[in-house]
Amino acid sequence: MALPDxxxxxxxxxxxxxxxxxIRLHHAVAPELLQACDRLGMLVxxxxxxxxxxxxxxxxxxxxxxxxxxxxSVFLWSxxxxxxxQGTATGYAIMARAASAVRALDDSRPITAGMNxxxxxxxxxxxxxxxxxxxxxxxxxxxxxxARPRTPMxxxxxxxxxxxxxxxxxxxxxxVVAEDDSLAADWGNTHRRAWQLxxxxxxxxxGFVWTGFDYRGEPTPFEWPSVGAFFGIMDQCGFAKGAYWLxxxxxxxxxPVLHLLPHWNWPGREGRPIKVMAFCxxxxxxxxxxxxxxxxQAVDRAQMxxxxxxxxxxxxxxxxxxxxxxxxxxxxxxxxxxxxxRLTPDRPQLRGDGRDAQPVTLEAVDAQGRHVPDCNAMLTLxxxxxxxxxxxxxxxxxxxxxxxxxVALFNGLAQAIxxxxxxxxxxxxxxxxxxxxxxxxxxxxxxxxxxxxxxxxAPVMVVESWRHTAAFAQPPAPDLSRRPNDNNSWSNTLxxxxxxxxxxxxxVLYRTRFTPWQGVQAHGGMLDLGRLSGPAQVFxxxxxxxxxxxxxxxKLALAPAAGARTLxxxxxxxxxxxxxxxxxxxxxxxxxx
Length: 593
What we know:
Elements: H1 5-17, E1 22-25, H2 31-40, E2 43-47, H3 55-68, E3 74-81, H4 89-105, E4 111-115, E5 131-135, H5 141-147, E6 153-159, H6 191-199, E7 204-210, H7 242-251, E8 258-261, E9 273-280, E10 284-289, E11 292-298, E12 305-310, E13 315-322, E14 325-333, E15 340-345, E16 349-351, E17 357-365, E18 378-384, E19 386-392, E20 406-408, E21 413-420, E22 425-432, E23 439-446, E24 460-462, E25 466-469, E26 490-493, E27 506-514, H8 518-523, E28 525-530, E29 536-540, E30 543-548, E31 554-558, E32 565-573, E33 586-589
Parallel strand pairs: 1-2, 2-3, 3-4, 4-5, 5-6, 6-7, 16-23
Antiparallel strand pairs: 8-9, 9-12, 10-11, 10-13, 13-14, 15-17, 17-21, 18-20, 18-22, 19-21, 22-23, 24-33, 25-26, 25-27, 27-32, 28-31, 28-33, 29-30, 29-32
Helix pairs in contact: 1-2, 3-4
């Protein structure tokens, strides 16, 4: 799927904001993503998708290395992912061949493999790599390190924990999982446990979490009607789950981190205990409810601090200290009902190049302008000065269309992705919903020079499959056609090459039937017949459209029309002189040069 360049940067920035400094490529990616990693300082583990010794697959691996080796962000080559042969002699041979092919092209980067088995085999892929990569199997860290103490190790894939953004109570029947890091796949671990197993072992270099974002499909631990993954640290829109704040507290040391979950809108639960989690990287913290202290705790960065709090509407507040000094303060407030919508762009302006795009956060607010986290209103959008590329809300159980002018808030949030028009101006996005005030934002569109481009292929369609008759004494009817099974009265021909001179002068009929590209069918185009060797009359779909003298270029406008077109040319030929089309016949878009 094509993705605007700016959205690659947006997703990388979201990862960087939680302390992430490396990503693993699970397949071939757009070069623009690697360019964004270079700019933003995001390290990349580039991975081979197909583990196969056949020459065509080795060639694909070599192409990957050639394509990515000049990107400074790429620091590690991964040559397999959970392959059944990884712990066999055959796997060793395939891995050795693949590693040799990579090192012949780039000997500056180490090689790893995403292995979920076979590390104790007598002969296997583990004997070839420079860095041992563990896909899960974290219980084997110590045993493998004891067996291979001089081989660096990292977690090439771990965690596989489940969360629904904005949910605090698990309901498996409804396919909802709390974002409190309480549920993980049988083969994985919670976020806290997965990182603890890495952080406690200095011989494990780090880990790659499955996954940074939710994605379409693989709705483990559920099946239909769930349609999206629950694995992400963030949802499909990039909105934070509890795992995001947890990872921030684990991974960020140079700035204070403090966040409370859940939100504090729980009507009907008054007096009942609710688990409260604080995600913090300080040394000590204190929790308050409506001005009453609920106690101080030493910060637990391994498990995160928790309280059981009897719910009462109001203000839940946390304060964090380091070395006796307050470094952070945050609060979760019970809000009023939603009274208005709010739109927040990711950036204050767009490049007016017709390509730049950015997400806009959609939410509802109460009378005090506070985000209402339990609002699930349906929004209708209207846009000018650009176009709406898509909408979403991060709900893995939603079946709503991703493209359209309506989107529902999910646990308080939704997203619209807008793309700029060309030139200076303003992109205007409006959101409406029943019972609340509309919201409008205007994003400046800055005029920029269009980037220089060279088409990968010429924007022209060559009209082929021509046949021509022998020379007639008089001009033939343009609708004369070849009878079925007649392979002798008509000759195949290719414009751009003249035919052998005829024995007598006369008139030759050329015919072809072609189907223009969809864009030409919809919007029209130009038909270029080039120069012909003699006077010619041209017929399109049975109608005479032009005539021209010998050597005169012929160009015709093609009106929009669906389906195939029939082209006929009656060409006057002279005895003993080559005849035909001097040039290739083409169709191009109307605005092509």
